[in-house]
């Protein structure tokens, strides 16, 4: 007796007449192709992953060659693919000198590995009391128990609190809804200065690192820090001798118009977490890179990083290296620098929509925040499901947009297209969003 496989996926149905009937059978350039032949413009590059666009044969070719030649090797071993990718990262993409590299499978894995490395470094330096990782509100660093604890994604943390180690959280740089009720620049970046107060309250001898996205990704909706934010954070980290971990899983590899988002402020973090755009959606790859002092201290203390079975899989390393080569060869980061302001200008026209409170972002990472009342910034009720309804409405117009928010912060639509998107396609995205927002919100 045959079984209906369609009943097995997804694990929990989306309960959406639009998405439950959607089957993506192929992808090409900036488009997703459905089983019934529709071409849907991918305005978010999947989960903000596909920087070079979909369906590049040359990436598939190098992965296939690697699968035949080598297939698998233990993660600590050297292989041509791992060596090539590590060299490309350190030479072309990472800020400063960051020779320590470990490969993993997902951003969650890599962010947790960064936390472990911060702890191991403090142990290696004889500071075993330093174990706390200060995270940030309205943030996302992954879905492992450790990354949920450090992150500030309320809906994903909900229910798991008894299972997580409590970690301190600094306030988000969320100017539209400033947690201190202040405005920039008169605020003197209180959200950054608060880090010092947290360290003092927790005890400086207990804090190992500060862990945050340089530009908050989808959880807060492209929250770009105000001037003075990161310089204040760096000063505090240096003053208390704690490590700075930059989560570039979403913002790295040209997404914001620089190689890494930290480059906007000339930051050189101690640890940087990489993913998503590193392999452009062609491989399940992430990485952690560190300054030399971290592996040197660990080696002197006889400590080594932990690895996962498929970390640095040769074929995935080959695919990632080819993606980075394409980004460089086709000058796609420079393209984001050129067209990012145009994308922002087009999206900011949505501010005239009565339900749009803010449009913010940088490069090819933007967010539209939707409210019930623009004067008071009152949100729609959570059970109205505004974000998901807007996504359904844009897909009905053959444009896929991506959800944002944390549950507490909600009704955020993210726009983060592949770097190959055209200006005409940008106009399609904006038009679809405007129509969808008006259609959904006016009916509430």
Describe the protein in words.
The protein has helices spanning 45-48, 57-69, 80-93, 107-124, 145-150, 154-157, 190-202, 229-240, 293-300, 314-329, 332-348, 386-396, 423-442, and strands spanning 24-28, 31-34, 39-42, 100-104, 132-136, 169-170, 207-212, 243-247, 271-274, 286-290, 356-362, 365-370, 399-400, 402-404, 412-415. With 444 residues, the protein is an alpha/beta fold. The chain has two domains: 5-55 and 332-442, Aspartate Aminotransferase, domain 1 (Alpha-Beta Complex), CATH 3.90.1150; 59-329, Aspartate Aminotransferase, domain 2, CATH 3.40.640.10. The strands form three sheets. A seven-stranded mixed β-sheet has the order 4-10-9-8-7-5-6, with helices on both faces. A four-stranded mixed β-sheet has the order 1-2-3-13. A four-stranded antiparallel β-sheet has the order 11-12-15-14. The longest helix is centred in the C-terminal third of the chain and has 20 residues, at 423-442.
Helix and strand arrangement:
Elements: E1 24-28, E2 31-34, E3 39-42, H1 45-48, H2 57-69, H3 80-93, E4 100-104, H4 107-124, E5 132-136, H5 145-150, H6 154-157, E6 169-170, H7 190-202, E7 207-212, H8 229-240, E8 243-247, E9 271-274, E10 286-290, H9 293-300, H10 314-329, H11 332-348, E11 356-362, E12 365-370, H12 386-396, E13 399-400, E14 402-404, E15 412-415, H13 423-442
Parallel strand pairs: 3-13, 5-6, 5-7, 7-8, 8-9
Antiparallel strand pairs: 1-2, 2-3, 4-10, 9-10, 11-12, 12-15, 14-15
Helix pairs in contact: 2-10, 3-10, 4-9, 7-8, 11-13, 12-13
């Amino acid at each position: 007796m045959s079984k209906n496989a369609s009943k097995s996926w997804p694990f929990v149905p989306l309960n959406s007449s639009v998405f439950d009937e959607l089957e993506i059978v192929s992808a090409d350039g900036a488009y997703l192709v459905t089983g019934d032949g529709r071409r849907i413009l991918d305005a978010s590059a999947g989960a903000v992953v596909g920087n070079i666009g979909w369906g590049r044969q040359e990436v598939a070719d190098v992965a296939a060659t690697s699968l035949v030649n080598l297939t698998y090797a233990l993660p600590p071993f050297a292989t041509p693919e791992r060596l090539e990718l590590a060299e490309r990262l350190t030479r072309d993409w990472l800020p400063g000198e960051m020779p320590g590299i470990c490969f993993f499978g997902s951003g969650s894995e890599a962010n947790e590995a960064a936390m472990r490395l911060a702890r191991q470094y403090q142990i290696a330096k004889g500071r075993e009391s330093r174990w706390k990782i200060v995270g940030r509100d309205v943030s996302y660093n992954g879905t492992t128990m450790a990354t949920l604890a450090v992150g500030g994604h309320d809906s994903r943390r909900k229910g798991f609190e008894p299972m997580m180690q409590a970690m301190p959280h600094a306030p988000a740089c969320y100017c539209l809804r400033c947690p201190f009720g202040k405005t920039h620049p008169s605020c003197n970046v209180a959200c950054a200065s608060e880090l010092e107060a947290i360290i003092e309250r927790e005890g400086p001898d207990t804090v190992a690192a500060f862990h945050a996205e340089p530009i908050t990704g989808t959880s807060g909706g492209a929250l770009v820090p105000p001037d003075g934010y990161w310089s204040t954070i760096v000063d505090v980290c240096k003053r208390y001798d704690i490590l700075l971990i930059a989560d570039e899983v979403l913002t790295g590899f040209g997404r914001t118009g620089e190689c890494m988002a930290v480059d906007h402020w000339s930051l050189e973090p101690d640890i940087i977490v990489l993913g998503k755009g590193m392999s452009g959606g062609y491989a399940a790859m992430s990485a952690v890179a560190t300054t030399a002092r971290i592996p040197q201290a660990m080696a002197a203390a006889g400590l080594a990083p932990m690895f996962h079975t498929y970390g640095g899989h040769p074929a995935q390393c080959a695919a990632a290296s080819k993606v980075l080569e394409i980004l460089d060869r086709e000058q796609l980061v420079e393209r984001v620098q050129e067209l990012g302001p145009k994308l922002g200008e087009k999206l900011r026209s949505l501010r005239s929509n009565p339900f749009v409170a803010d449009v913010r972002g940088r490069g090819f990472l933007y967010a539209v925040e939707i409210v019930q009342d623009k004067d008071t910034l009152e949100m729609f009720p959570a059970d109205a499901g505004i974000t998901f309804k807007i996504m359904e409405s844009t897909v009905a117009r053959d444009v896929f947009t991506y959800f944002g928010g944390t549950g507490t912060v909600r009704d955020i639509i993210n726009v983060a297209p592949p770097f190959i998107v055209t200006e005409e396609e940008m106009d399609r995205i904006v038009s679809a969003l405007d129509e969808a927002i008006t259609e959904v919100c006016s009916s509430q």
